[in-house]
What we know:
Blueprint: H1 3-27, H2 31-59, H3 69-92, H4 97-104, H5 108-125, H6 129-134, H7 137-144, H8 147-161, H9 167-186
Protoporphyrin IX containing FE binds near residues 85, 88, 120, 154 and 157.
Amino acid sequence: xxxxxxxxxxxxxxxxxLVWMVQEAVAGADLVTELRDASGRWSLYLLLLSLCFTPVTxxxxxxxxxxxxxxxxxxxxFAFACVHVLVWISLEFAxxxxxxxxxxxxxxxxxxxxxxFALLKVLAASSNRKAQRWRGYQYWRFIHTLIYPALGMxxxxxxxxxxxxEWQPMLLISVFIVLLVxxxxxxx
Length: 188
Ligand code: HEM
């Protein structure tokens, strides 16, 4: 399949996920919680997936044709994070900025989410060719290592969101650690 068609197929598939997510939340018992949590989780899945492209293509060089999908994956991770944050601002707090501030102050869990979101915004804004040329490739590559602190903080945020120990955050954190170790040992 040509690369443009592959990218389009992934865009459409993730759009379907978003529509399905909204539909499930609307049909469910608690729209705000379901939409907020599902969008946060999907953002994490896609961030982790975007980090898998390099190790997988090292193992299977023929799969390098799929590398352009990494940008689509990353942009959708940011889109889901935007849905997550917008649900919090609009549906959960109804734009009550004072209420939000009271929630934020002294709350490490929320701070991790905010810093992670700010880093994801930088990554999304610098994901095009113009940004790559702006200060040269090396600088652009450095900016893109921000994915690691952004993801680490988002995973900490996910872990802290659980009232009881759950297997899913532990699984995602384990995948992240494996990817970090791989990068430290094998990436150039
Ligand atoms: C301004 C930034 C953010 C705010 C204010 C925020 C807020 C929240 C809140 C209020 C919850 C629910 C906690 C609870 O259950 O009591 C939550 C959960 C969560 N957030 Fe965020 N968040 C932010 C950024 C992020 C980002 C950037 C990500 C992912 C990249 C993320 C992923 C998640 C996940 C996975 C959950 C848990 C979902 C679950 O329990 O199934 N959040 N967040």
